Amino acid sequence: MAAPMRGMSVLRQAFQGLVRPAGGQVCRQVQHRCYSTPGHVQVDMNSETGVATVRLNRPPVNSLNLDVLTELSIALEKLETDKSCKAMVLASAAPGIFSAGLDILEMYQSTPERCVAFWRALQDAWLNLYGSRLITMAAIEGHSPAGGCLLAMSCDYRVMAEGKFQIGLNETKLGIVAPFWFTDVMLNTIGHRETEKALQLGALYSAQQALSIGLVDKVVPLAEVMPTVEGELKNWLQIPAAARVITKTSMRKAVLDRLRSQKEKDAQFFADFINRDSVQKSLGMYIASLQKKKN
Ligand SMILES: CCCCCCCCCCCC/C=C/CC(=O)SCCNC(=O)CCNC(=O)[C@H](O)C(C)(C)COP(=O)(O)OP(=O)(O)OC[C@H]1O[C@@H](n2cnc3c(N)ncnc32)[C@H](O)[C@@H]1OP(=O)(O)O
Question: Which CDD domains does the record associate with it (predicted)?
Fold first, then answer.
């Protein structure tokens, strides 16, 4: 194993295939490169098709904590600079779940410093995903509330499994408020009227309901989600890349710039907001209700 390089995190080096993390695998084959680490984001790059599959892997519910968000950001940065990579499928390695959104425990009884670091990691992961030059598709094979919904909406195309799974920005139900850039992404996805209703109610939609308001693009049986994404990708890959990227960039730039221009203010605002007594009380009650569900 190569010795870790100074000035570069072990995590980043692992993603670049420079070190083999304890317990993890870095496998290189002619057609597939898998970056499997003890971490929570698995990347499988098919160098024949140029399609990378990025799987969130933090069972049981892929809640997004500081580590997951940092790993996701690094994985996206790496794919962005990989000239052979044309498209990325965002999926889950945990059955029945896409992502349960932000890890609520990162927001409950945390320190202001940790809150700021956590929020910066979320901002960076989102900027990398929403601003990606790649074709990005979400394979939603399970529940996708809140931050999970944000990740899915930030892709170019969404295929969701039919059945009991739900998707939406349910923040108000937790006594918190969707940040302006979550709102912007939803506005760009389903328009003003549906967003206004969805956000105030903290609505969680079934796959069919989500399809009817344009929150997802296709609903298929669970086993068909990945084949459907792969089929759709074939259409997208036929479009001249430069023209597609310019179109995507011009349509998303205003929303991306809005956050870029006030990242630090937004992070501070989050830390102050989340540490309010009333917000902490609501989060505490929500956590208790999740636990009670089981008993
Ligand atoms: C003036 C004001 C201006 C406004 C300014 C705004 C400033 C910023 C405000 C802050 C915004 C913050 C944004 C937040 C976005 C989010 O993403 S918040 C997270 C929301 N997520 C949820 O509500 C999902 C909750 N989870 C569920 O509903 C269910 O778990 C599930 C449907 C996803 C899956 O159900 P099931 O398969 O039955 O699993 P469970 O038994 O419920 O869960 C297993 C296990 O995981 C724990 N867990 C679930 N979700 C989370 C989570 N998000 N974070 C952490 N942990 C989670 C759950 O408690 C169980 O734990 P135990 O096994 O009991 O230990």
Answer: crotonase-like
Q: Where are the beta strands (DSSP E) in 110-223?
A: 135-140, 142-145, 157-161, 166-168, 205-206, 218-220
Q: Give the nearest ligand 1 atom to 100 CA.
A: 33
| Residues 238-280 pLDDT 10s | 999 999 999 999 999 999 999 999 999 999 999 999 999 999 9
Tokens of 122: 């979320």
Q: Characterize the bridge pairing of strands 32-36 and 25-28.
A: antiparallel
What CATH number does the domain located at 39-223+238-294 have? 3.90.226.10
Inter-helix orientation angle 192-201/180-190, to 10°: 130
The three-state secondary structure class of 57 is: coil
**Residues 151, 254, 218, 211: is their CA dihedral positive or negative?**
positive
Q: Hey, how many other C-beta atoms are within 10 angstroms of the C-beta on 102? A: 24
Domain ranges of the chain: 39-223+238-294
Q: What is the ipTM of this complex?
A: 0.97
Tens-digit pLDDT profile for residues 43-86: 999 999 999 999 999 999 999 999 999 999 999 999 999 999 99
**Residues counted in the chain:** 295
Cβ–Cβ under 8 Å, residues 185 and 138: no
Contacts of 63 (CB under 8 A, 6+ apart): 99, 100, 101, 102, 103, 104, 105
Q: Please give all residues whose beta carbon lies within 6 A of any atom in ligand 1, as ranges.
A: 60-61, 63, 96-97, 100-105, 143, 145-147, 170-171, 174, 176-177, 179, 269-270, 273-274, 290-291, 293-294
Ligand 1 atom nearest residue 294's Cα: 41
The catalytic residues are 102, 147, 170-171
